[in-house]
Design brief:
Blueprint lengths: L1 E5 L5 H21 L13 H26 L6 H4 L5 H19 L11 H29 L6 H34 L4 H5 L5 E5 L1
Antiparallel strand pairs: 1-2
Helix pairs in contact: 1-2, 2-5, 5-6
Length: 205
């Protein structure tokens, strides 16, 4: 009998960063629906403070995601996540889009593949979006600490943060919905990405 190590598809660092960032995003979106923004000399309420501090955590989680992506030896490559500077990779994304459209016309989903061009590119855009939101929120927080919230730069930063918030909602809902559909209709296991195991050994002859 030989012992064979079975590793999850994604590194532990990637899964931890994904869980941390996803949790922070959900808390951010939830708090944004009920918090009271600062108005003139009136500060924001406690939910606004929660929103700000969770935003700082989100920036750390996003930074950790970038580090994990740069250091990992398995998982989706950076070229698949960000194909926009390669004509061949953009062509692969377009081909994958057509495959998805043909499947949807037949009321089916294509089999899930971790390195599928379309899914990978969407994940890359999602990471860029979440990083942008965390960064703009942190810039506003720093401006607030320095009484600079009325400066042209910080006001523009705040407007960009609020404008792209709707895209975060769309991405989160779409991402979660497709993940659940693939979990039940395809070969994707949601438990794998949310697992904290390092791997397991399996005996074989």
């Amino acid at each position: 009998m030989a012992t064979q190590s079975i590793s999850p598809k994604h590194t532990l660092a990637t899964r931890l960063a994904h869980a941390s960032l996803a949790t922070a995003i959900i808390l951010q979106l939830a708090s944004s629906q009920f918090m009271r923004h600062p108005r003139g000399a009136t500060p924001g309420d406690w939910l606004f403070s929660v929103h700000e501090y969770v935003g700082l955590f989100a920036l750390l989680a996003a930074f950790g995601f970038w580090l994990a992506m740069a250091a990992r030896r398995r998982g989706i490559s950076a070229g698949l996540l960000f194909p926009w500077l390669s004509g061949s990779r953009i062509g692969a994304v377009w081909t994958d889009i057509k495959i998805h459209l043909r499947s949807l016309m037949k009321l089916r989903l294509p089999p899930y593949e971790d390195d599928a061009p379309l899914a990978s590119a969407v994940h890359g855009l999602g990471l860029l979006l979440m990083t942008f939101m965390a960064l703009t929120g942190t810039i506003y927080f720093i401006g607030e600490l320095n009484d600079a919230t009325q400066s042209a730069f910080v006001r523009l930063d705040k407007e960009a943060h609020e404008l792209f918030a709707n895209l975060v909602w769309a991405y989160l809902i779409g991402h979660a919905a497709l993940a659940v559909l693939h979990h039940y209709l395809s070969n994707l296991s949601l438990g794998e990405m949310w697992s904290l195991r390092r791997g397991q050994n399996q005996e074989s002859e």
